[in-house]
Chaperone protein HtpG
Amino acid sequence: MKKTNQFKTESKKLLHLMTHSIYTQKEIFLRELISNSSDAIDKRHYLSLTDEQVGSADYKIIITLNKDEHTISIKDNGIGFTEEELIENLGTIAQSGSKSFMEKLDSKDVDIIGQFGVGFYSSFIVSDEVVVKTKSPYSDMGYLWRSNGVDTYTIEAIDKEEVGTEIILYLRKDEEENEENEEKFSQFLEDYEIKSLVKKYSDYVRYPIYLASDLENTLNQMTPIWKKDKNEITDEALNAFYKHQFNDYEEPLKTIHTKVEGLLEYQALLFIPKRPPYDFYSESYEKGLQLYSKGVFIQDKNKDLISDHFKFVKGLVDSSDLSLNISRELLQHDKQLKKIQQNLDKKIKSELERMLESERELYVSFYEAYKNTLKYGIYNQFGLNKDLLQDLLLFKTSQSDDYITLKEYVSRKKENQKDIYYATGKTKQAIMNLPQMDVMKEEGFEVLFFTDEIDEFMIQVMMKYEDMNFKSIQTADLDVASDKKKKEIDKKEKEAKDILGAIKGALNDKVSDVKLSRRLKDAPVCLVSGEGISLEMEKVLKQMPNQSDVKASKILEINPDHPIFVQLKQVFENDATKLDKYASILYHQALLIEGYPIEDPSEFAKNLTDLMLEKM
């Protein structure tokens, strides 16, 4: 006898909301129904271990497509439903009460979908009628549940021999579809579409999934590669999985496979690509890891699972402990998610450190591909991740053509060395040619080479390493000369006070000061920065929009032991009017050495020509 029942008022409202708002993609219905079938089989298998009445079976899920009837059916041999369970589970959407569930939905505090059993109702996204044929091992009869998902549902007893459930969806017609939406209901009647959706969302459901038209070949792999024992997985299998899963033609540089058990359980399979994708440093690049829950695909690029400084990592996380929202399309932001991200940060770092120590050549390949991401990670968030990342940095130096770490630099510093010295420039050779390097070579101090634009920003945040300050050799306050030399220069500077003042006057506001240098050996002059931004930082900032007025404080240093200084003194004593030309030439010479363009090429050429003619 057929019984007709009304959906409760709250259930009707929720059902309408679910089919029109909650799920953003129509294809999700297949994932939900397959997941429900898998859960039903799980339950039957568990009960069969202790209850002979339940019995075991050759567990499987079968999808049948009927183009003539315009239907899809998903059939399993799981636990099935009794009549009471049909009413409880399908007649009332939330077992805990529809009103309570609505309140939770309104407050945006909806817990994991499995708690409420609402996945079944995704059927009505694509169907105007749903039929459920089911039989429980605890019932002599089978039952048929039918509804259009609007007002009522019916239940009637039927003859059904096999335990399990078959859900039949009567698909809507394509003409009911919004013209702006490219998805059509009839596409779900095509074998290739179902195969694609099973592969995308349910490839790792633990029970075999078949199309009724081909019961020889399963649609899903069932056992995810990341759930296999590490000893059972070959490098070839991992590489093949990576290339297929993440559309890369090259094998990964490194694979990280981890499993965590305890209060929070998850598995992660991570890969570091050999090289960044073409859009890696553009705004269009999306970081993120694939997310699975119990082997079911949930999200393609979850940004919260990976930190920005490790955004080059591709891979996936599978966890049953995360709080999914009602549609299983998004995650609730919770402590578990943050904890996984923190754990993965530590795991990635430890793997990189291990590579740095035991596979140095491989690490250098990684570093050259992704160094700017690590450096930005230190600069970002005001140095919050400095301690995590600083030992992963590599630098070339004045004493080494090979990369070294900061720890290695400190371990071999001179005994009397107080600071970590660095210099900035476009290339190593450009830095080696800096006149400021003279004193560093003479005193035997090793200098780190900063050749990337991000380096200047990074070092302002780092400030120190192992209680040693970072010190640029291109700043005015560099203090490496011997006490004897300092005294000699201080004496000469007092004697040359007038000429230095005249040169500063001649250069007007181009420099903030003119001084005798303690650092120059062979070069006649150099430019160094005073307080504020460095010379290299000025170059970087001026490339940015609306930053043309940025200006570093420039100090012109003159070598007191160079013949040019003797010439300057003679000019100042005999014909001070020529000093302006000498000052301009020396200033522009210093600009060229520092990699700046000449400010006034015509003036520079004229002054140089005039002085050359005077000497002829």
User: Anything to note?
Assistant: The first strand starts at residue 3 and ends at 6. The first helix runs from residue 9 to 22. The radius of gyration is 36 Å. DSSP finds 20 helices and 22 strands in the chain.
